[in-house]
Amino acid sequence: MYLTRVSNSHIEKRFLDGGNSVKSKSLTAVNAALLFLNLLLLAKSSKHMSLPDNIPQGWATLIAGVIGLGAIAWQTNRGFANLISSQDYRAKIERDAREHQADIARKAKDEDIDHQRRTLAAALHGELLAVRSSIRNRADMLRIQTSLGATLPEDRLREGLRDFGVPGAKSPVFQSQLENIGLLGPSIANDVVQVYARAGIGLERGSMRTLSVTAIQNLLQTVIAAIDRCVPQIDHVAMRLASLQADGVSDPGPLPLA
């Protein structure tokens, strides 16, 4: 049985990365070697043909064997090269898939954090507006009481202030979200804590019983002035929180130093 001619479809291998093929020169060399081997085998087995006297049959057989083994070695080498290329390409595909999956997970995490940040900013924004309204009403009430107190005798004023107090603003949302305040970023979180602390300052009931009328008037004026300073600060921080909730709202920056 003669060796058949190696066709392009058997030698030419397409790699998985897009079809790199064996060069035509290599195919020609292999086919020529196999053709030469076939001719030698034909000459050896034919009754009407014989090898020339100057080419011993032993040498011819050796040459044919070398050529055949060379072709096998070349094909084996190409097979290993294709296998290595296939493994490299598969490793690249798997690496790209892992990176893509990591990007998806990271993007989902970033979106979740952004949603939490926006939700927290909206909740604190709404509560700060309520606190602002509450302390402004308290300041107006204190102004009225201060004006009325100036017209009352000291004993009646002291009696009226026996159980009087100025409660600080309540902030249940802020208190419950202290552990998540870092989502706002260090600058905005710092301003939020400052305005809540200032809005929460008050006077305990009965704390002015032993004070003179003048001291009481001065203390109430101090509380009113503190509230008046706190209101624009709340407006400023509310604007900063609004910048986190919607695109297009600019951040006015940190609170100015008091």
Please describe what this structure looks like:
With 258 residues, this protein is mostly helical. It has two domains: 8-103; 110-245. Helices cover 69% and strands 0% of the residues. It contains seven helices and no strands. It has helices at 8-11, 24-45, 57-149, 154-160, 172-176, 186-199, 213-245. The longest helix is centred in the middle third of the chain and has 93 residues, at 57-149. The termini are far apart. The relative contact order is 0.09. The model is unreliable at 1-25 and 47-51 (pLDDT under 50).
Distinct helical segment count: 7
Q: Provide the helix percentage.
A: 55-70%
Q: Please report which band the strand proportion falls in: under 5%, 5-15%, 15-25%, 25-35%, 35-45% or over 45%.
A: under 5%
**What about the largest sheet?**
none
The best one-word shape is rod-shaped
Low-confidence spans: pLDDT under 50, at least 5 residues?
1-25, 47-51
Secondary structure class reads mainly alpha
- N- to C-terminal distance: 103 Å
Mean pLDDT: 77
Give the strand tally. 0
Radius of gyration from the CA trace? 46 Å
Tell me the series of helices and strands, N- to C-terminal.
HHHHHHH
Tally of individual domains = 2
Notable traits:
258 residues, mainly alpha, 2 domains, 7 helices, 69% helix, rod-shaped
Reconstruct the topology from this structure:
Layout: H1 8-11, H2 24-45, H3 57-149, H4 154-160, H5 172-176, H6 186-199, H7 213-245
Helix pairs in contact: 2-3, 3-7, 6-7
Structure at a glance:
The protein has helices spanning 8-11, 24-45, 57-149, 154-160, 172-176, 186-199, 213-245. It is mainly α and 258 residues long.
